[in-house]
From TrEMBL:
PANTHER family from the UniProt entry: DOXX FAMILY MEMBRANE PROTEIN (PTHR36974:SF1), MEMBRANE PROTEIN-RELATED (PTHR36974)
Keywords for the protein's UniProt record, in alphabetical order: Membrane, Transmembrane, Transmembrane helix
Annotated protein name in UniProt: DoxX family protein
Location(s), subcellular: Membrane
Organism per entry: Flavobacterium cheongpyeongense
Membrane topology: Multi-pass membrane protein
TM stretches of this protein: 6-22, 42-59, 65-85, 97-114
A single cellular component GO annotation: membrane
Amino acid sequence: MDLLWHLYLMAFLYIVAGINHFRSPGMYLKIIPPCFPNPKLLNILSGAAEIVLGILLIFPFLSHFAAWGIIALLIAVFPANLFMYQNKKAGFGLPKWMLLLRMPLQLLLILWAYQYTF
């Protein structure tokens, strides 16, 4: 993709989202399904991954690796979207239609990252 600002926007969004894992961990801990062990560690790892991958997107010789990493991360955190939809407390009181909309949005984010894998 030739529009570099799209890449920089994606990098910025992942860096900010990653930082937010450390600023507001309770929000993320609430959406981690209880079947996953050590939610605090998972929150730290996913937040750090978002920051690192966002930074790596900026470097042309690393951006395709970072894009694959983002795709893997989006797939790995998908159970949180399902849990938010199924569990009223994890859904922050948002309407069901909005929580349902998050799932195809994840697919769009994967497609956006995929554009930078080659």
